[in-house]
Amino acid sequence: MSSTAATSSTILCTIFIFLAIFSNSNDALTAYQVLEEYDLPVGLLPKGVTSYELDSSTGEFTVYLNETCTFTIEGYKLKYKTQITGVISKDALKDLSGVQVKILFFWLNLQEVTRDGDELIFSVGIASADFPLSNFAQSPQCGCGFDCAVNLIETVTSFNSFN
């Protein structure tokens, strides 16, 4: 084999190895994409997910956030811990741990989220509330939830009226 043929073979092998490694790294879905795979909206998780683990045979999952996250949605204050666990299946998150909702003066564990058509039903065991699916088309941001733009406008308006 000539040196030109050997060099060409080496280059081709290197390219194939690179493509194999690169294509495998792009196959991994984000936690938000996994929600969509199970017909759930991305807005069930706040921005800031750093990684996740999923056992696709059982649906057991763990999601990791970079920090504890609190915000208010539709008058309910929510708190996401840095580690959230549960079981995911089509249209449902069950056996949740790491997500709490404040009702009156008490923090209660959110146990389950179920999709029923165009509604999401959030359950804390003793009570539940349902919301339009469309409310969760985007991920909320820690601190301000879905109202970050409104909060920014109010801050700028307050600052301008102060001057």
Automatic annotation (TrEMBL):
Domain of life according to the entry: Eukaryota
The keyword Signal appears for this protein: yes
Keyword ATP-binding found: no
Segment forming the signal sequence: 1-28
UniProt-listed Gene3D superfamilies: At5g01610-like (2.30.240.10)
Alphabetic keyword roster: Signal
The protein's name: Transmembrane protein
